[in-house]
Write a structure and sequence with these properties.
By secondary structure, the chain is mainly alpha-helical. It has one domain. It has 12 helices and no strands. Helix 1 packs antiparallel against helix 9. The longest helix is centred in the first third of the chain and has 30 residues.
């Protein structure tokens, strides 16, 4: 039996569709978590969500004959990855629970900009002045959204910035993680980190574990299914088309996150949010485009 190989154009098309589906899944995951946070302690939500996702990825790894533990799991990059996963999940979960979903989603989209800056500083990757300028403009977009000197400033928006920085650190650590660790193993330990983040929030807040009805159980289950599906779709996207072709479609999460915030939680779309979103998105797209130009002979 022969495996059909897609031509580059079709591969990029399908890769882009996988990426769009992934971003929709992550936005739905955030929606379910925010909805559950209106009733349940956030720490409890994260622990259940993380445990559900870890069980799914553990089952997939075992099905593929991959051991859940190898010495590489304790490598330095993996230890940093777990730390930043916990840090990012902790702050971003607090953000989506306490501030508008649309605001948290927009700020999160600055993650690739921080990853580019971090890759230059940590890995010594060549980043010219044009891309450094784009990084700066994108971060200005974050400041525009937060409005630190404005009357509508909310210090809680800093939670989303903390989550964004945590996820950027996780992505940088993932690049240095041993290649022998599969997507399933990374997903397993990533979701276990969510359990730890939930335990930290639960202990810090002093909240008691609350009883759950069928609606809340289904809400958590929906978040798990959306998160696992989105994660798998993201991996599929990155392995189907060219990275430079599919990565820009990450910004479709802006559309899904803002739309769900408005439709489900009755959030308002402000001029500052629109301007900041445009600055972040254009900066990110320019960085990807510029990187592709440099790679071409």
């Amino acid at each position: 039996m022969t495996t059909q190989i897609l031509d580059p154009g079709r591969a990029n098309l399908f890769g882009s569709l996988w990426m769009i589906g992934s971003m929709a899944g992550f936005a739905v995951e955030d929606m379910f978590l925010k909805a559950a946070a209106q009733t349940l302690p956030l720490g409890q939500i994260l622990m259940l969500f993380g445990a559900g996702g870890a069980l799914v990825f553990a089952a997939l790894a075992i099905w593929k004959g991959q051991p859940l533990y190898t010495p590489e799991v304790l490598s330095r990059p993996m230890r940093w990855r777990v730390f930043f996963e916990i840090f990012g999940r902790l702050f971003y979960a607090l953000a989506i629970a306490l501030i508008p979903l649309s605001v948290a989603t927009v700020i999160l989209q600055a993650t690739p900009l921080v990853v580019v800056a971090g890759a230059a500083v940590i890995f010594g990757e060549r980043v010219g002045w044009r891309r450094w300028t784009a990084v700066f403009v994108g971060l200005v977009g974050v400041v525009v959204i937060i409005q630190p000197s404005g009357g509508s400033f909310s210090a809680l928006s800093i939670l989303a910035v903390g989550g964004m920085l945590g996820f950027a650190g996780r992505d940088l650590a993932s690049r240095a993680a041993p290649a022998s660790l599969s997507t399933y193993i990374l997903g397993f330990y990533g979701f276990l980190s969510v359990v730890v983040a939930g335990a930290v929030i639960l202990l810090w807040s002093g909240a008691s574990v609350a009883a759950m009805d069928i609606t809340l159980l289904l809400t958590i289950l929906g978040a798990v299914l959306a998160g696992v599906t989105a994660y798998g779709s993201l991996m599929k996207a990155m392995r189907t088309g060219d990275v430079s072709a599919v990565t820009p479609f990450r910004y479709t999460r802006l559309i899904f996150g803002i739309a769900l915030g408005i439709l489900v939680f009755n959030e308002a779309l402000t001029g500052a949010m629109i301007l900041g979103s445009v600055l972040i998105m254009l900066s990110g797209l320019f960085i990807f485009w510029r990187g592709k130009q440099i790679q071409q002979p």
